Amino acid sequence: MLLADKEGTFKAVIFQQNIERVAMPRFRYVIALGLAVLLLVFALVFSILGRVRYGDFYETAEVMSIIENNYVDKVDIKKCQEKILQSGLQDCLDKHSYYYSADDLKAVKSLDSAPFVGIGLQVNKKDDYIHVVSVLENSPAQRVGIIPDDLIVAVNGVSTKNMSPEDATNKIRGKSGEKVVLTIQRGQKKQKDFILVREKIERFYVKPSFITPEIGYIRITSFEQLSSLELYSSFYSLGILSDFSSKDFTGNKSARGIIIDLRRNPGGFLGEVLSMLDFFSPDKGRTVFSAKGLHVNEKFTTGIKGFFDNLPIVVLIDANSASAAEVMAGVLKIWGHAVVGEKSYGKGTVQEFPIRLSSGSALRLTVARYFLGEQEVAVDGIGISPDHEVKWKKSENQSEEDFAAEFFPNFGNPEKDPQLKKAVEVLKEQMKKPRN
User: Fold this and answer.
1) Which of 188, 174, 60, 185 is nearest to 132 (CA)?
2) Distance (Å, rounded) from C-alpha 133 to C-alpha 101?
3) Which UniProt keywords are given for this protein, alphabetically ordered (predicted)?
4) Is residue 418 a contact partner of residue 394, using CB atoms and an 8 Å limit?
């Protein structure tokens, strides 16, 4: 099973069994070797600084040993030690690596098991703060006027600077009926407090519909566990599987082509993306991506030749399509399917989480970068470029609020959404071509 960096941003993901095979055995044996030396160093440092317990420097030494033997790049351990002592893990490593106390780890784990009670936001990390990626329809956040691209700079008065997306999500969520205060920065305007009341949120991750009787539209908001089964179910809803079934589930409707909308999709479990790409794979054994780091070198391939390898597909992306969403869009592009919209976010790293420490705390650590297809196309810091670039245009004097009021009601409307409108045009041209 694939274990993800369920980064509230961007849940970059990795196969647990493969990471254990590639990286973890070395980590388990090597960590003991490094600890003896590092403990001496940190014992001296902590005594000089007047720090408290043996456990403090033991854990810091343990963290440093894990970093040295698992991090994606070579790290100057001496400089990293100093930075961690001064200001924490993120000044030493990349922005997707985090330290979790035992309480933080417990809270993060509870997010996946508890019923979803919150305010209806998807968030990630941007400019050291928490960035609103999307707002669910008819949610508390939408009703009070929070919009995508807002920055959450504080939750209940606690600054979100250098806060992990999971930690922020945990602070935002709570019991139904309770209030939470978000301090929002919108563009260059003054910060504003929004008071919201938490409620149970109904979530969907894969939602199919028809644009025309022959054009299917599948909106994927995130790659969560079992999302691949939701996609398979969507094929039935769109009549695409009627050729393989004695029953037509859609009456007279049967999509001859589909638009997969990955806009404002922050990523998720790469295992789900791999399963989804199997549906469209030209051949068994095609390279989807390679994960490479200082201690990781693994290739992931398609498991089958897909049922829908010749189905006309257009993919929609934007600047908030990230991580696993970029894998799906990038690989489908490599396989010859058109991509419409804006250049994607450019998160091409893989995290392992949780790497547990002896104290009960844990690390989320970037262990690899991924590269797409046989040609190993880089994504990190680059993104996926669309074949047809289309942007939502904001008028010169239009305020953020007015733009949002125009944007969100029209998002997903093929008549008023310029990116979707272009995707329909491109798909219609593809559908005119003979299928193999």
Assistant:
1) 185
2) 26
3) Hydrolase, Membrane, Protease, Serine protease, Transmembrane, Transmembrane helix
4) no
Express each pLDDT in 69-116 by its tens digit: 999 999 888 788 767 655 666 678 888 888 888 887 877 776 665 567
pLDDT of residue 104: 78
Domain 117-200, CATH among 3.90.960.10, 2.60.40.10, 2.30.42.10, 3.20.20.30:
2.30.42.10
Length of the chain in terms of residues written: 436
The topology under which CATH files domain 206-432 is: 2-enoyl-CoA Hydratase; Chain A, domain 1 (3.90.226)
Strands (E), 39-172: 98-100, 117-118, 121-126, 129-135, 151-155, 158-159
Tell me the domain boundaries of the chain. 13-94, 117-200, 206-432
- Quickly list H helices, 252-323: 270-280
Q: Is 188 helix (H, G, I), strand (E, B) or coil?
A: coil
Mean pLDDT confidence for 266-283: 93
Distance linking the first and last C-alpha atoms of the chain: 34
